Amino acid sequence: MRPLASRMSVMSGEGALSVYARAKELEREGRSIIHLELGEPDFHSPAPVIEAGNRALQEGKDRYCPMAGVPALKQELAEYLQRTRSIRISPENVVIAPGCKIALFFAMMALLEPGDEVLYPEPGFPGYPSIALGLGATPVGFGLHEKNQLQPDPEEIAAKITPRTKAIITNSPGNPTGTVYTDAVQRRIAELAVKHDLYVLSDEIYARIIYGQEYLSMLRYPGMQDRALIIDGFSKSFAMTGWRLGYTVAPAHVVPALVMLAINSYTCVAEFSQYAAVEALRDSGGHTPRMLSEFTKRREQFIADLNRVPGFRCASPEGAFYAWVNIMDTGISAEEVCRIMLEDAGVAGISGAAFGPSGKDFVRFSFASSTATLKEAVERIHKASAAWQTVPAGR
Ligand code: PLP
Fold it and tell me: What is the CA radius of gyration of the chain?
């Protein structure tokens, strides 16, 4: 048999999905498992969104529709971004995609040439380096280190820019660290992009899940209108993971490329789901603020409880719904901590190396579960921690 395309051997999967598979296997054996590995809100889609989707189907909105998205949704998005992110865009700059990940993939496909370098946050969403490699580009990580409060260091970014650099990926609030980039960091990244003529791919999927501060989109910074692409979707902010709905806000000269990629792949996003998305953005039932206030309570309780587990150290995330726990003081590797938690305690978390080499001393937990479930998870981890407390110091 002839081999598959070589790009398949450089792309990689997601750690969360393989942990999920093992956790499911244990469940089939009758074990009780608490799932803290997946980045999926435990809320379901708001009832008015489901009603809007049903209504659209009944009205016959089950046809092919405009490739860039239905005008009603693009218009609503322009109003939504103005209302929630104080940015002014034209509906003509919006391209609707079947999920944020496809929006990201196609934005990178539209911009990156084989051999181009793309800067990305590391630890970060595994798709960034994987997609770049699949396209023949070179991903270059910039660190999110504890010594910088998990913020990017713009001077490190500046030092890593070469004549081959084409784009910088930003992700605020970020997965897996929960970092909300400061105004100063974003301003400096924008300046670097302008100075070196780079695109900025701003993955803003967690924009609405931010604790106690105003969200600053990359599009607010000078020079960004022509070179920043916002990548976002409905999975996290509206608990609509299974609808597969995302979008890109792109400069006018990039939009035709994204539409070309749509024509050559998904054609258009399911028409009825786009009408449901209009209702999600209007949020007539106040679903997103309610979800956020629930996440706020969970964050407070869960982070405090995790910090009481021997060997665990964790700062409070400023956004998203992940706890990024430093486990160095356990004296064992993050993989071993995760193995003990899953096999002995029935708690699924992800070892940080799944998000890049500098995540190796960390574990990521999602706190998109009820406060009672999170309490029980930490109790179980506490009991299982006996396994690492008996490890001789210095090992
Ligand atoms: N970007 C980041 C940072 C994410 O964490 C995720 C999902 O976990 C995505 C993109 C993909 O989102 P979607 O479900 O819309 O494809």
Answer: 21
B/e letters for 184-218, b = 16+ CB within 10 Å, e = fewer, are: ebbbbbbebbbeeebbbbbbbbbbbbbbeeebbbb
Q: Which amino acid is at 235?
A: S
Task: Tell me whether strands 34-35 and 246-249 are parallel, antiparallel or unpaired.
Answer: unpaired
Cα–Cα nearest to 269, from 259, 279, 283 = 259
39 CA → ligand 1 middle, Å: 8
- The pTM for the full model equals 0.96
Parallel, antiparallel or unpaired: strands 246-249 and 94-97? antiparallel
* Tokens (6 digits) for 348: 């699924």
For residues 170 and 247, membership in a common domain is answered with yes
Best of 19, 101, 179, 355 for a ligand 1 pocket test (most atoms within 8 Å of beta carbon): 101
Q: Is the CB of 129 under 6 A from ligand 1?
A: no
Beta bridge partners of 325: 314, 363
- Whether 203 lines ligand 1, by a CB cut-off of 6 Å, is yes
DSSP H/E element including 230:
strand 228-233
Residues 6+ apart with CB under 8 A from 23: 33, 35, 37, 342, 348
Q: What is the CATH number of the domain that holds 166?
A: 3.40.640.10
Burial state string for 113-127 with b = 16 or more CB within 10 A and e = fewer than 16: eeebbbbbbbbbbbb
Contacts of 346 (CB under 8 A, 6+ apart): 26, 31, 32, 33, 34, 380
pLDDT in tens, 37-84: 988 888 899 999 999 999 999 999 999 999 999 999 999 999 999 999
Domain containing 339 — which CATH number? 3.90.1150.10
Domain that holds residue 214: 47-282
Distance separating alpha carbons of residues 38 and 294, to the nearest angstrom: 18
State the pLDDT at residue 10. 93
100 lines ligand 1 (CB under 6 A): yes
Whether ligand 1 lies within 6 angstroms of the CB of 235 is answered as yes
Give the model confidence (pLDDT) of 186-234 as tens digits. 999 999 999 999 999 999 999 999 999 999 999 999 999 999 999 999 9
